Amino acid sequence: MRKSRSKPRIWDTDWLVLRPLSRLILDHVRTHSPAARLVDLGCGDMPYKAELEQQSVHYLGADIDDGGDLRIDANGRVPLEEQSVDAVLSVQVLEHVRDLGIYFGEIRRLLRRDGILYLSTHGSWLYHPHPEDHRRWTGPGLVAELDAHGFRVEESVALVGPLATTTLIRMTGFVFFLRKIPLLGSAIANGLAVLMNLRALIEDKLTPATIRQNDACVYFVRARCKP
After folding, report:
1. Quick one: residue 46, left, alpha or beta (phi over 0 = left, psi -120 to 50 = alpha)?
2. Is residue 85 assigned to a domain?
3. What is the 3-state secondary structure (H, E, C) of the chain?
4. Domain extent at residue 36
5. Is the dihedral of CA 153, 26, 48, 11 positive or negative?
6. Using one digit for the tens of pLDDT, what is the confidence trace for 173-188?
7. pLDDT of residue 3
């Protein structure tokens, strides 16, 4: 799973989203936070750790269980001092957060004065609790949400517009059921995933950027704490 998130294959159902997202994360950290001390807040199985450490980043994964380097406590706190990190990475976590005030407050506490938040979350997608799933955003809505919680967005990138997203959702459903078929199910599912990923890629190329920016599958933003 770790490798498929950082280096998805064309037969993975989320290839069209995860491929550019991984590139955005690595490129932005390389450009704006070289040799940073970075906390991956809600790190899961830490799919980006190896690539970030190759960029001389001091990576620390934090999560609510024991899978990371640091454990987030019941109050949403990470066991680090105030203003002790250069960057916070939050990848597909925000939609699962019940109390955004606590989550963003902890990010502001951890970041140094000129620190950077790299965040991605869903605009449109299926319900997927891990263990909860609460929200979706439009492009302007996510920028407004961050502004309301004390962050100034420097860049917002929309990944996969609404036309391609509908293809990805259908593909996810088809592949899920096909892979349950014994013997040939997985092979058929992989072949279908390749075809539908290519179709979605073409559909996304045909989608105007203005439509994608307002109504994307996933958004990636770079932001700093407001003074």
Report:
1. left
2. yes
3. CHHHHHCCCCCCCCHHHHHHHHHHHHHHHHHHCCCCEEEEECCCCCCCHHHHHHCCCEEEEEECCCCCCEECCCCCCCCCCCCCEEEEEEECCHHHCCCHHHHHHHHHHHEEEEEEEEEEEECCCCCCCCCCCCCCCCHHHHHHHHHHCCEEEEEEEEECCHHHHHHHHHHHHHHHHHCCCCCCHHHHHHHHHHHHHHHHHHHHHHCCHHHHHHCCCEEEEEEEECC
4. 2-161+208-225
5. positive
6. 999 999 999 999 999 9
7. 56
- 12 part of a folded domain: yes
Neighbours of 106 (CB within 10 A): 20
Domain annotation covers residue 104? yes
| Count of structural domains, the chain | 1
Q: CA quadruple 37, 40, 45, 49: dihedral positive or negative?
A: negative
pLDDT of residue 66: 87
The single residue listed with the structure tokens 């078929």 is 181
In degrees rounded to 5, what are phi and psi of residue 47? -65, -20
192 found inside a domain = no
Answer whether 0.85 is exceeded by the pTM. yes
- The per-residue pLDDT for range 128-173, each reduced to its tens digit, is 998 899 999 999 999 999 999 999 999 999 999 999 999 999 999 9
Closest C-alpha among 100, 87, 98, 4 to residue 40: 87
Q: What is the CATH number of the domain that holds 30?
A: 3.40.50.150
φ/ψ (deg, to 5) at 91: -115, 110
